[in-house]
Known about the structure:
By secondary structure, the protein is an alpha/beta fold. The chain is 42% helix and 15% strand.
Amino acid sequence: MSLFKNPFDAGTSLGACPCGAHRSLAEHNAEYAALQRQAELETAADEEKRLTNAVDQAVIRAILPDDMTRRRVLHAIGAGTLLAALEQAFPLATAREVFAQGKSGPLEKKDLKVGFIPITCATPIIMAHPMGFYSKHGLNVEVIKTAGWAVIRDKTLNKEYDAAHMLSPMPLAITTGTGSNPIPYTMPAVENINGQAITLSMKHKDKRDPKSWKGFKLAVPFDYSMHNYLLRYYLAEHGVDPDTDVQIRAVPPPEMVANLRADNIDGFLAPDPVNQRAVYDGVGFIHILSKEIWDGHPCCAFAASEEFVKTMPNTYQALLKAIIEATAFATKAENRKQIAEAIAPANYLNQPVTVVEQVLTGTFADGLGKVQKVPDRIDFAPFPWHSFAVWILTQMKRWGQLKGDVDYKKVAEQVFLATDAAKLMKEVGLTPPSATYAPATVMGKTFDPAKPEEYIASFKIKRV
Length: 464
C-alpha cells in the first residue's frame, strides 16, 4: 500500500501501519503529515517563483522592448545584474507583491483582528488561522475567541475587530437598525449550512412530541439568530406559541450545556459542538437536527462593516478569499478529521477532538443509544443567497422584530454580497449558482422569495 494512502479515509485500517513500513499507525501518520506539509511548502514556493519570474520578465521587456537589444544586454551582463541595477530605480519588490495579490493592489492593512464564537459554525474562519489560509494571502490575522454574540457585535461596531464571525441575521438587523441605530453592514459569505440541533434534557427523553413542551424553558444563542427563527418555526408548526406557551431565552453557546446540567433550561436549539457535548457529558439527547427542519439552511456568516469593505478593498478581498478557500477545503469529507484536530484545541473550540469529529463527520451518538450517520449534518457552502436574506427578514417581521414596510429585495442585495462571493468561489474551484434567489422548503412549506408578505400572512401563529 502506498505511503500516501489517506489515513483519514474510512476504508483505511486504523490498526497497524497501512503501508507496513512503520512500527505504528502514529508513526505512519506523522511521516505522512510531514511529507504533505513539505509538498505544500514546495508547491507554494514554486508558485511564488513563477510569479516573481513573470514580473521580472515583464519589467525587463518594458525597459528593453527591442528583442535584439534585450538579448545583447542579457548576454553581456546577465539577468541578475540587470535586475539588481533596475531595482535601484524601479520598485521591483512592490511590483512583485502587487502582481501576487492580483490587480487589486497592495494590502491597506495586514494585521487584522477577527472575532469568533467557539462553535463549529465558525470552522472556516477558525481553521484559516492554524492551517495557513490567511498567511497565504499576506495577512496576519488574530482570531479572537469571544464570549457571546452581543460582545461580537459591539466589538465589531466599535472597530476593535476588523471583521467577525456573526449569525447570518445579525448584519441584516444591524443594517435595518432592528434593536439599535442602523449601520450599513455586509455579509460576503455564509460560513456553514445545517449544523444545528434541538437538544433536550435527558429527563425529557419520553417527551418527543413538541405539544408536550408547554411550560418548557428553551435557549437559543441570540435573538437575531437562525436558531431563534427555526425554533419558533418548529414550535409554531406544532401548534405551540413560542411567546406564550414556552419561554425562550438567549444563552451564549459556551454556557448552554452547564445550564442544561443545572436544570435551568429544558433544552435548546443550538449550534454544534454544543449539542454533541451535551450527549458526550450525558446530560442531553439530540431530539432533531436542524437539517430536518430546513435542509440547507444558512446559519453563521463572515461579516464586516460596509466601511471596511469600501475603505480597505484589497484587504477585504484577501480576507474573503482566504475564508472561501478554507470553506472549499472544508467541503471535502476526507478533510474533516484533519480540520477537527486543528480547531479542537483550547484557543479555538476547547473541546475533545472526538466531539468535534462527530459533528464534522456526521457519524455521532444521539444520546438515545444510537449511532447516526448523517454526512451533511453540517456542511460548508459560502454563497450568500439573497433568498436566504429575504426568508430571515420575513421571520424578523413575523415575530415583531422588524416594523413597518420592508424593501426585502433592496436590503437583501445591499447586505448579502453574492457577486463578491461568486467571483472568489470560481477562483478557488467552487461553482457558484447562476441565480441569487431560489425557493426553499421549510417543514414541507414552500417559501417563494418573490412573495414575502404572502408568506408571512400564511402563518397562523405570528406577532404581525
